[in-house]
């Protein structure tokens, strides 16, 4: 496709055709077909939606068509007013944008407005981009023309302001959107009121707002409202704020253990407070430096700024990490970093964000979003079509700015600030898929270089178009006051682009184009100013990602290599992501190898040990879940790579395994600050109780609380004791110079039943701890805890003594525990189980180098068929769950990996959702857990 030309007139934009064809309507270029959309809740069997004869292009997936039909078509189902074709939806929205652009002087004439409409239709029709959900809900209907999904509110230290906060949040929740605000202006519970009494403090007022959010279901649906609450780290009530949700999580656990229904949406969860908001602590550079130096930090009064308390910064930071470890809240927002990149500091500081932390701007403001489908701009040869990408950015930026001209807003203050600063939130989806398809690992230098270059190009092209719009229709109202700061931030973006190191021709070409765009940004901005205070963010793109048939959302990697595909006429099938064969071809593999690897992925869900695949290419196929799951810091490093090229922040939660420590979370938070992120949230697997993770039928409560004869007996694990005489194996070992002995006893069927560890002098503390540990593990084994579980938990633990061992199969160990459980795995687990854990003997590793497989040849298997009398037989591999029982990609991944994914069940169709940025999204019906 050709590149777009630049406007040469101040009387309006000239819009060239880049995507559409002169004289041919975009709808006439595709083949249309009629479909029936029937949506059921598979758990209850209830039909939740039904519309027959809807019209979509034949290349749109069943999933995309279903989500658009159920979510975005307007009008009562079964009436003539109900939309039934994608043409109607696109015309309703695009016609409004084109007409408003012509009315407000954006285009040189009607012909340019018509071309603009054709170009937008083509891009939307071919799934190159999508507006955020409120646009599809509202634009062109009789409803208020709300186009924004992200809101930031404000609250002052007065009762009128606090009550108004409750009211404004309620209005936003009622409309299906979310909001965030900073409570730090409210005086602390340690300060006096003018009447002489003691103030309630912000944590107390959070209780009322939380109850309101829980009562007003977002958009009239059954999901919770989406809200963010921020408190500055120097607020005197910061300790209470940090512990708020952790204390409630303890309450949830106690009530659950007492038999109450504490699942999200359960009958008893409403008795627990503070569950309807994400909490974040706004930390400063001064505080983070005090943490590094183990210094002190002052907590100051809101009324007069005096110091009320001095704390050890490291202890306060540890409490934040501890709370996040317990319940995933609070996250962190890095105040000085955010405001260093603020284009409007003369109009006020940035103090808060929207619920997902990607929109960071002035109080009482909003942002409308749109996202590009990155994979649509990847050529078959693995290079990026930068000309088409830039042209799409120009068109979408223009459309988003036009929408502010006709948009409605929930409050007068939000409307005024949005029109004065015209904040936009252009972003992208399918980054993970693009990186894989182009042969780049997500957690690799090459992957980060390409992602950073693309983000730099997107923001540079958006701001360049913003300067061109300023030439045509004028800069934003707040620009004159903030011109110097805005230009300074543009220079920071340009400098970051200049400093970016590229590693291949692919990212090099994108980077070169980005550099040219940023040079124009500074030149045009200096002459004309800018139309928009902000241009780009990275939002979750949950529902609209499905509308574009994206494999991945926002900045996320691929969730898994296998997924469910809905079929015409109902039903679904398991498929391997189309990105996998495309990536293999990009990497140069022949069709025979491609077919073999795809078949391996279909069976196992990963590429480890796939025939013909080079080990150095494994990283290309690493995903968020599975055998080669991307490490937490891999996610942080990707966020850091793209953050310097975004006006706002990134909606993303860094997931950590269940066995992650408080120190691990503290490290993630610290590195986020050092690497220049604006905001960061974490989630440790299974840290929250209040999530509907069960896949069974929920228990039905009866009116009679008394037990009945039909009440099932409580099922408890039964201890399987070892026989009086049993086979055992004693192993001597040396780790880092420390010597010891391990004795492992087995059942008659060969299963491991006990271990004894001898380390240290008899009677010493170390010997006593080892004895106690041996007893605990042995009892666990006898009560049915699989050995694989112990191996997963205790391998890779790092502490002294560590280092060289005298075991030829395990040459290095990170600790005594790391060695012991690797040795137990080698002695008692099957090859298949150990392959899942990445543990092999020296002989197996040598065989893999020679043959590409850890499995022994057939003749060797036959020779080893008769077990040695003294050696215990390996524990039989557990039966793999049947993937056919799954109903979503999330459940499919669980069945293949044997690991549970922390995610709620969809409130509409009952299927298990999957992560999307800081939220969850249902791939069955497109519903989200809190973000529009």
From TrEMBL:
Residues 38-127 form the Ribonucleotide reductase class II vitamin B12-dependent N-terminal domain. Belongs to the ribonucleoside diphosphate reductase class-2 family. Its cofactor is adenosylcob(III)alamin. It comes from Desertihabitans brevis. One of its GO terms (biological process) is DNA biosynthetic process. Residues 693-731, 865-893 are annotated as: Disordered. Catalyzes the reduction of ribonucleotides to deoxyribonucleotides. May function to provide a pool of deoxyribonucleotide precursors for DNA repair during oxygen limitation and/or for immediate growth after restoration of oxygen. Residues 718-727 have a biased composition (Basic residues). Keywords: Cobalamin, Cobalt, Disulfide bond, DNA synthesis, Nucleotide-binding, Oxidoreductase. It catalyses: a 2'-deoxyribonucleoside 5'-diphosphate + [thioredoxin]-disulfide + H2O = a ribonucleoside 5'-diphosphate + [thioredoxin]-dithiol. CDD domains: RNR_II_dimer. Gene3D superfamilies: 3.20.70.20. The keyword Disulfide bond applies. Residues 725-826 form the TSCPD domain. Its EC number is 1.17.4.1. GO terms for molecular function: cobalamin binding; cobalt ion binding; nucleotide binding; ribonucleoside-diphosphate reductase activity, thioredoxin disulfide as acceptor. SUPFAM superfamilies: PFL-like glycyl radical enzymes. InterPro entries: RdRp_reductase_class-2, RNR_2_N, RNR_lg_C, RNR_NrdJ/NrdZ, TSCPD_dom. It is an enzyme of class 1 (oxidoreductase). The keyword Glycosyltransferase does not apply. Residues 148-683 form the Ribonucleotide reductase large subunit C-terminal domain. This is Vitamin B12-dependent ribonucleotide reductase. Pfam families: Ribonuc_red_2_N, Ribonuc_red_lgC, TSCPD. Residues 869-881 have a biased composition (Pro residues).
């Amino acid at each position: 496709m050709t590149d777009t030309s630049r406007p040469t007139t101040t009387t309006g934009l000239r819009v060239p055709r880049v995507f559409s064809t002169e004289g041919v309507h975009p709808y006439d270029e595709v083949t249309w077909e009629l479909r029936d959309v029937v949506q059921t809740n598979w758990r209850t069997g209830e039909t939740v939606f039904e519309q027959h004869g809807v019209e979509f292009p034949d290349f749109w997936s069943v999933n995309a068509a279903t989500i658009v039909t159920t979510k975005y078509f307007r009008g009562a189902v079964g009436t003539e007013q109900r939309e039934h074709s994608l043409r109607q939806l696109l015309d309703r929205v695009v016609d409004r944008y084109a007409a408003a652009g012509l009315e407000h002087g954006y285009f040189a004439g009607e012909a340019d407005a018509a071309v603009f409409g054709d170009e937008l239709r083509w891009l939307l029709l071919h799934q190159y981009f999508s507006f955020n959900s409120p646009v599809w809900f509202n634009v062109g209907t009789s409803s208020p023309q709300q186009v924004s999904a992200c809101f930031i509110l404000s609250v002052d230290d007065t009762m009128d302001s606090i009550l108004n906060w409750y009211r404004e949040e309620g209005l936003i929740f009622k409309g299906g959107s979310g909001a965030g605000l900073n409570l730090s202006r409210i005086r602390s519970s340690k300060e006096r009121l003018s009447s002489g009494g003691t103030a309630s403090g912000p944590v107390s007022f959070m209780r009322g707002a939380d109850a309101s959010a829980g009562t007003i279901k977002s958009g009239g649906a059954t999901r919770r409202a989406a809200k963010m609450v921020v408190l500055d780290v120097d607020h005197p009530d910061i300790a209470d704020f940090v512990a708020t949700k952790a204390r409630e999580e303890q309450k949830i656990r106690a009530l659950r253990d007492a038999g109450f229904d504490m699942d999200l949406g359960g009958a008893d969860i409403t008795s627990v407070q503070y569950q309807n908001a994400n909490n974040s602590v706004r930390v400063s550079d001064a505080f983070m430096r005090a943490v590094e130096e183990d210094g002190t930090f002052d907590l100051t009064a809101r009324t007069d700024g005096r110091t009320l308390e001095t704390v050890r910064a490291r202890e306060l930071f540890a409490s934040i990490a501890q709370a996040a470890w317990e319940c995933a809240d609070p996250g962190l927002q890095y105040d000085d970093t955010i405001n260093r990149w603020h284009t409007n500091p003369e109009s006020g500081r940035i103090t808060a964000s929207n619920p997902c932390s990607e929109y960071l701007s002035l109080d009482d403001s909003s942002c409308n979003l749109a996202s590009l489908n990155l994979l649509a701009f990847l050529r078959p040869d693995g290079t990026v079509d930068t000309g088409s990408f830039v042209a799409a950015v120009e068109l979408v930026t223009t459309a988003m700015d036009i929408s502010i001209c006709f948009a409605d807003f929930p409050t007068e203050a939000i409307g005024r600030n949005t029109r004065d600063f015209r904040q936009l939130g252009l972003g992208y989806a399918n980054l993970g898929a693009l990186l894989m398809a182009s042969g780049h690992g997500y957690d690799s230098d090459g992957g980060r270089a390409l992602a950073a270059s693309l983000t730099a190009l997107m923001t540079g092209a958006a701001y360049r178009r913003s300067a061109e719009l300023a030439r045509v229709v004028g800069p934003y109202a707040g620009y004159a006051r903030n011109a110097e700061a805005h230009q300074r931030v543009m220079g920071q973006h340009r400098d970051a682009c200049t400093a970016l190191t590229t590693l291949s021709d692919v990212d090099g070409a994108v980077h070169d184009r980005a550099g040219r765009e940023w040079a124009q940004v500074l030149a045009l901005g200096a002459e004309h100013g800018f139309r928009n205070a902000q241009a780009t963010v990275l939002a979750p793109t949950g529902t609209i990602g499905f509308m574009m048939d994206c494999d991945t959302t926002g900045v996320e990697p691929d969730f898994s290599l296998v997924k469910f595909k809905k079929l015409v006429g109902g039903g679904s099938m398991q498929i391997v992501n189309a990105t996998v064969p495309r990536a293999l071809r990009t990497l140069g593999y022949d069709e025979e190898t491609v077919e073999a690897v795809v078949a391996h992925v279909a069976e196992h869900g990963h590429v480890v040990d796939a025939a013909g695949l080079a080990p150095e290419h494994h990283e290309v196929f690493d995903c968020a879940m599975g055998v080669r799951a991307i490490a937490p810091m891999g996610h942080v490093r990707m966020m850091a790579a793209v953050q310097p090229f975004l006006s706002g922040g990134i909606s993303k939660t860094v997931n950590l395994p269940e066995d992650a420590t408080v120190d691990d979370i503290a490290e993630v938070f610290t590195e986020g600050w050092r690497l220049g992120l604006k905001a960061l949230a974490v989630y440790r697997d299974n840290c929250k109780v209040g999530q509907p993770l069960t896949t069974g039928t929920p228990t039905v409560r009866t009116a009679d609380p008394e037990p009945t004869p039909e009440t099932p007996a409580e099922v408890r694990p039964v201890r399987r004791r070892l026989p009086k005489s049993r086979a055992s194996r004693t192993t001597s070992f040396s780790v880092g110079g420390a010597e010891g002995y391990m004795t492992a006893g087995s059942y008659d069927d060969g299963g491991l039943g006990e271990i004894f560890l001898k380390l240290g002098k008899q009677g010493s503390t170390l010997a006593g701890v080892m004895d106690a540990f041996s007893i605990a593990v042995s009892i666990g084994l006898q009560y049915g805890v699989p050995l694989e579980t112990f191996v997963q938990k205790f391998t890779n633990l790092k502490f002294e003594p560590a280092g060289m061992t005298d075991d030829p199969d395990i040459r290095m160990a990170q600790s005594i525990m790391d060695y012991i459980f690797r040795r137990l795995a080698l002695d008692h687990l099957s090859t298949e189980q150990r392959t899942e854990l990445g543990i092999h003997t020296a002989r197996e590793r040598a065989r893999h180098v020679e043959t590409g497989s850890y499995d022994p040849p057939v003749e060797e298997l036959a020779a080893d068929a008769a077990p040695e009398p003294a050696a215990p037989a390996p524990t039989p591999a557990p039966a793999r769950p049947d993937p056919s029982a799954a109903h979503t990609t999330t459940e499919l991944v669980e069945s293949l990996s044997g690991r549970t994914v922390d995610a709620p069940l969809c409130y509409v169709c009952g299927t298990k959702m999957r992560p999307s940025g800081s939220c969850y999204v249902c791939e069955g019906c497109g519903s989200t857990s809190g973000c529009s």
